[in-house]
Every structure is written in structure tokens, then in C-alpha cells.
Design a protein that fits this description.
Blueprint (H helix, E strand, L loop, with lengths): L8 E11 L12 E13 L11 H15 L3 E5 L3 H11 L3 E4 L5 H16 L5 E11 L2 E6 L1
Parallel strand pairs: 1-3, 3-4
Antiparallel strand pairs: 1-2, 2-5, 5-6
The chain binds zinc ion.
The site of zinc ion has 5 residues, from strand 2.
Length: about 140
């Protein structure tokens, strides 16, 4: 039973957001929206007393809550894109979420993996080991720990 890969649990979270990729060679430089699908995968050293890595409801509450508060129905922009962000929030009152990088699926997945999950799950004996973010049904970025 050596080298058996650990059991994981994965929660899928969908949200809607707008973004644009600054200096993109094609139409992704224009503001547009996606129905994003985020999948976060967790491992624990041991299963809990009930036999879980972490309750799926806890992932929904923590990560789903963060997504609801920070990304869902927002515009996600590179922090060099403040003029656009200001125009959008001035006109529509929408929240703008700024990243220190272009908001590609890759950078957004990395942000969830490296910045968001470690803080949200610090109080639990679990670790996020994979984040996959679909921008479309056909395109996703994935980061593994
Ligand atoms: Zn896009």
C-alpha cells in the first residue's frame, strides 16, 4: 500500500465575473464576462472521525463565501487597469477586484491556491492541493501543490 496517492475531496463552485487581459493580442483585451467554474481539491493527513477529508459544506461555506464576497458579479482587473475600474465603479457602483497580475485563468487559479485557501483553511487540518479554473467549458487553468 506504499505510495498510494492520498484521498482527496473536491468542491465545484461556479460564479460570474467580468475581466479583461491587458495587452492581449486578440479580443480578450476587451472587457467581457465568463461563467467561471472553480474546483478546489483538498487533502488531510487523516480522515476525520466521520471519514471525511473536510465536509463539503465547509468548503462551500469558506471558499464559496469568499467567492461570493469577492469575485461573484464583480469585475476582476489587473491593478494597472485602475482607470477602467474607476469608470466601471463610478458608473455602475460595481465592486472591482484588483489582482497584482493580469486576470488570466492561470493567475486567478494561482491566487486562489496561494493567497486565498491558505488563509481560509488555516484553522482546519486540511490543505488545498489543486485548483482548477474553467473560463469556458473548453478552457481551464490548473495549479497543483
Ligand atoms: Zn476571458
Amino acid at each position: 500500500m506504499k505510495n498510494k496517492s492520498p484521498i482527496t475531496c473536491t468542491r465545484r463552485i461556479e460564479f460570474d465575473a467580468a475581466h479583461r487581459v491587458m495587452e492581449h493580442e486578440g479580443k480578450c483585451k476587451h472587457l467581457h464576462g465568463h461563467r467561471y467554474v472553480l474546483e478546489a481539491t483538498f487533502v488531510a493527513k487523516n480522515l476525520d472521525a466521520l471519514g471525511r477529508v473536510v465536509d463539503f459544506g465547509v468548503i462551500k461555506q469558506e471558499l464559496g463565501g469568499w467567492i461570493d464576497d469577492n469575485w461573484d458579479h464583480t469585475t476582476i482587473l489587473f491593478d494597472k487597469d485602475k482607470a477602467l475600474g474607476k469608470a466601471i465603479s463610478d458608473i455602475t457602483g460595481q465592486t472591482i477586484f484588483y489582482l497584482h497580475t493580469n486576470p488570466t485563468a492561470e493567475n486567478m487559479a494561482e491566487y486562489i491556491m496561494q493567497q486565498v485557501c491558505p488563509k481560509l483553511f488555516a484553522h482546519l487540518p486540511v490543505e488545498c492541493v489543486r485548483v482548477r479554473l474553467n473560463e469556458t467549458p473548453n478552457c481551464y487553468a490548473q495549479i497543483e501543490n
